[in-house]
Design goal:
The structure is a homodimer of 222-residue chains. With 222 residues, chain A is mostly helical. The first copy, chain A, folds into 2 domains: 68 residues, Winged helix-like DNA-binding domain superfamily/Winged helix DNA-binding domain (Arc Repressor Mutant, subunit A, Orthogonal Bundle), CATH 1.10.10.10; 148 residues, Four Helix Bundle (Hemerythrin (Met), subunit A) (Up-down Bundle). Chain A is built from 9 helices and 3 strands; from the N terminus they run αβααββαααααα. In chain A, helix 1 crosses helix 3 and helix 4 packs across helix 6. Chain A binds a DNA duplex (30 and 30 nucleotides) through helix 3.
Chain lengths: 222, 222
Amino acid sequence: MNESLTLADKVFTELTTAIVRGELRPGDRLSEQTLVERYGGSRAPMREAIQRLEARHLVKRVPHAGARVVSLSLAELRDIYEVRVELESMACRLAAQRMTDAEIAELYDLLREHEESIAAEQGLAYYQKAGDLDFHYRVIKGSRNSRLYQMLCGELYHLVRMYRYQTSTSTKRPPQALQEHQRIVEAIAARDAELAELLMRRHIQSSLNNLETRLAEEEGRS
Amino acid sequence: MNESLTLADKVFTELTTAIVRGELRPGDRLSEQTLVERYGGSRAPMREAIQRLEARHLVKRVPHAGARVVSLSLAELRDIYEVRVELESMACRLAAQRMTDAEIAELYDLLREHEESIAAEQGLAYYQKAGDLDFHYRVIKGSRNSRLYQMLCGELYHLVRMYRYQTSTSTKRPPQALQEHQRIVEAIAARDAELAELLMRRHIQSSLNNLETRLAEEEGRS
DNA sequence: ATTCATAGGATTGTCTACAATCTTTGTGAG
DNA sequence: CTCACAAAGATTGTAGACAATCCTATGAAT
């Protein structure tokens, strides 16, 4: 089989999760030598891993000066969300038209699971976030547009996740988000593309509002 | 100053234009050794150039097997246009809200130039295409969203250009496109965001239709 | 004390060589 | 003649060293 996981690939995924989880913080330097000491191997694979991180906009590289974990300004975060709103509401519209009935049934199952986890109040912040991403992920997959999937899940999501990990989750938000998810699935099930698009647009917009207030709070506290 | 153009960067831009212009055709192999013989230097910079081409989806790389120029299926091309329609109409909406009056005036100037070049019938296909891209480029810039600019101009446009270079330009399309551009600018100047968005959506949609019929013709001829 | 220049160290860019993997060509069996 | 298999060749992945560039700290001049 083609089980060829190159070392560069391994380091790349390791670094990706490290950045997303906040173990590597925005602005942190990524020296090739340091990575060699940390992950073993030679500089060549580390270099490749860094380049791939740059391709996903997780690090910024300047010639002869090295790479640093990206540090997004609030304006840039807004830009990202502005694009994400547009693309995900589009995905939701397409999903309403193209998802199979089986996929929609699975969406309902997923929401039931989330409901239970919230009711049990075991709704750990981490699980909530993962579950939320899972929901969005499936809708995007349902759009049946590979490029759309690439852009949202391959390029924008890591950045979004990176900032969500670092902000504490409100206790009020999850139940509300779940409700919004339920309405969206209903619209998809009804094959009402326009409504599904509108609801998703509002959902992400309010998600951004939530994130902004939270960032403002942390900014004020520090 | 920071005039540091690394060799990898140089080769990367060279290859980009070569691919976009069709000198390197879809499916063509890109061996590191071949690039060394062609551009000089060593394998390391060639490798980096190839990786950056992969990041822009211009080549596809499989581990231990090398890189080939991407060959898009008609379905993938439709996916790209589906996304492009959404993002560019969004950009147009934002441009109507955010462009300065000076920028709008420059747009009018640009359209006048295009008009003249068409009237003079010197309207070479190449110039037409470049001019068209220039128009779209300015509207996107006018959206004031850096991420949107990155996605459209940095990732999607090369692919679009690649396929446009390879399809001959219709003699009927340029005048029609110019008219559509004029209507769009009028909407932007009137700060009518909704109309501007709608017109851009239709414009790109008809551009896709034009491309599809042309591809179908060439398919039938071969 | 502040600012500028400079020298040293550290880091990245590039080169060459070697190991691991894939592709292709040639051979033989069915 | 076609297909499967194996060895040779070619290509990529990795390693280590050297060269070019940048960052930093030290010192001198204002």
